[in-house]
Design goal:
The strands form 3 sheets. The chain has a 3-stranded antiparallel beta sheet with strand order 2-6-5. A hairpin with a 5-residue loop joins strand 3 and strand 4. By secondary structure, the protein is an alpha+beta fold. The N and C termini lie far apart (70 Å). The chain folds into 2 domains: 121 residues, Winged helix-like DNA-binding domain superfamily/Winged helix DNA-binding domain (Arc Repressor Mutant, subunit A, Orthogonal Bundle); 113 residues, no CATH class.
């Protein structure tokens, strides 16, 4: 099978649901704990790039000695090669194809991210000081994709017969729970006049929202939690029917 066809069969996985094997955590933490490597991962998540192209396109933020942000643009292939090796060993990127150079015994490798580097994963793995504040803000409250993923795991426990309409309703319920938690946390911050760094607060909000989603999932999946929930729903339905009569 030619490399192009083989590359087409490689599916881009979601890093948030990857099951790490023993020993992989350290490598992945190291791989994502760098401004340059995060930038490379984002670049290669949208297109296939070779070493020179990555070096040319590379843009990342850094801080000067006074703590002011400034943009660093571009690099050399020699400086990028080491970072590519770390990402490849951590299985975050892979070579999708190789192009032979005419009249030379050399090939050009083209890289692609193996996973979608979405915000939740980066927040879980990368040090806080390498995350751009605007990127962090865009992830709170939690976006639709993680909510949809957890709803799919819950739906078969909630409904006997699954339909798109039922999944849509459950998604709205979970999203409302998350958004309410987000608003509540912000209200508490204002009420108690908490002085906290914006980036850190955004991270706290994100983990609060993730906690709500996990709690909702546990309520549905665990029989000892689901039974009281079923009883409550039954009482609500009975009360509504009684009220209508």
């Amino acid at each position: 099978m030619c490399p192009e066809k083989q590359a087409a069969k490689i599916e881009h996985k979601d890093l948030n649901i990857i099951k790490l094997k023993k020993g992989e955590t350290v490598n992945m933490s190291k791989a994502l704990g760098s401004k340059i490597r995060l930038a490379i991962l984002r670049l290669t998540s949208t297109e296939e790039l070779n070493l020179s192209e990555i070096a040319e396109k590379l843009v990342y933020e850094s801080k000067d000695k006074d703590g002011n942000l400034f943009e660093k643009r571009g690099s050399t292939p020699q400086a990028i090669y080491h970072h590519l090796q770390i990402l490849e060993k951590s299985k975050l990127i892979h070579v999708v194809r190789e192009k032979k150079i005419k009249n030379m015994n050399k090939t050009i490798k083209y890289y692609r991210a193996s996973y979608e580097p979405d915000g939740i994963n980066i927040l879980l793995w990368a040090p806080l000081d390498v995350i751009e504040h605007t990127y962090l803000e865009s992830m709170t409250p939690i976006q639709e994709k993680p909510v949809e993923r957890i709803v799919k795991k819950m739906a078969d426990k909630v409904f006997e017969d699954l339909t798109d309409a039922k999944i849509e309703i459950l998604t709205k319920v979970i999203k409302n729970m998350v958004d309410t938690t987000h608003d509540s946390m912000n209200s508490l911050r204002k009420e108690y006049e908490l002085e906290i760094d914006e980036k850190l607060w955004s991270l706290i909000l994100l983990f609060s929202n993730l906690s709500v989603m996990n709690s909702a999932k546990k309520l549905i999946e665990d029989e000892k939690f689901r039974q009281p929930l079923d009883d409550l729903f039954s009482l609500i339905v009975e009360e509504k029917q009684e009220y209508k009569i």
